[in-house]
Sequence to fold (444 residues):
Amino acid sequence: MAADAFKLDTGNTAWMMTSAVIVLMMTVPGLAFFYGGMVRSKSVLNMMVMNFVAAGVVGFIWILYGYSMTFSTDTSGINEIFANPFKYFGLVGLTDDNSLLGGGGVPALVAVGFQATFAVITVALITGAIADRIKLGSWIAFSAVWVTAVYFPLAHMVWGGGLLSGDGPIASALSTPIDFAGGTVVHIDAGAAGLALALILGRRKGWPKEPMRPHNLPYVMLGAALLWVGWFGFNAGSEGAADGTAGRAWINTFVATCVAMLAWMATEKFRDGKATSLGAASGVVAGLVAITPAAAAVDSYGAMIIGLVAGVLCALAVGLKFRFGFDDALDVVGVHLVGGIVGTVLIGFLATDKQGGFLPEGAERGLLYGGGVTQLATQVVVAAIAVVFSFVLTYVIGLIIKAITGLRVAEADEVGGVDFALHGETAYDTTPATGGRVKEGISA
Fold:
């Protein structure tokens, strides 16, 4: 029987357009300020530019072939891994009748725009692991290759009907994997990629002996606040409609983040004697990351547990780079990789279809909510596949680009500051004024 003709739902469409806007805000300016404040003053412009560049490169590629490679249903691609990039090349041939969110009455182009923002922020997240030391041209090349070879396939595998979806072999053997808004597709993906690229680039000059403290903590707090606000579009918007499931995702996103922030600060206080503003901001992000895959799949108590575990474990995990000697500059591994794994795996314990919880067809309740170990096993397998897939491919891509163009800036440019070396600018004018005087508050 032919599919029903598309019928516009203006309420759902307005919500999805709003969600797309605030998710884009998470990258520029949210992540740009968050990461920009965490680096030293000589690198802040470069960090912000890399986030803007991620939006430019990924946005262009997404419209050209990324959406088609991720979400088209044409089987002429390797359909378990990726779809046909030419089916809707340049969005030609895409109609509302084959909209990704057509069942909710959301036009195809709105769905394209919403998903574009997810691809953008995933690439941008990687910049935190490689701060202060990558060539701008190499970052542009890496962004284009990585989003094509890693992000689009993994997003297709999880959300587009591929290997890790409810239609894939894992669902047939175990149960339907749950990743409501991007625990594997965004956070595990970016975290594993950040680790691989940081290993290839090597340590920053002077790390870990020299202190490399955040130069502007108010920027960090501002960025975290923008991320928190935008994340409601990220998680609640992933329902694709303005309904009760979106409401459950909104509430879970809110409460998990509250608990994670408090848990991170308590961990700091117990360990170091002080609860810091950087810790509060980092706890916010850790909670947001961890609740993302589970946003609609747990009840309020489950969300609180996820926030608590993520806040404590991520606060402890950021110290792993010192123990193992990898220079993850802004803790992408400790927050996004660890937080993404925490949220993904805890679904296997906490998933429920009670109290407003939503489980996709074929998924089971968590171990603590009357289910068996099947959903837990499913979540562990999917998380492990995502880590290996992203890390291995990123490492290969990084080595290839390093061999062709080089990755790292010259040592003198790194020491002097990549802002001036790469952009010919500095964020702050510290040159003493000369040749004039100040009289009655007016520069002469």
In short: The mean pLDDT is 94. Residues 374-404 form the longest helix (31 residues).
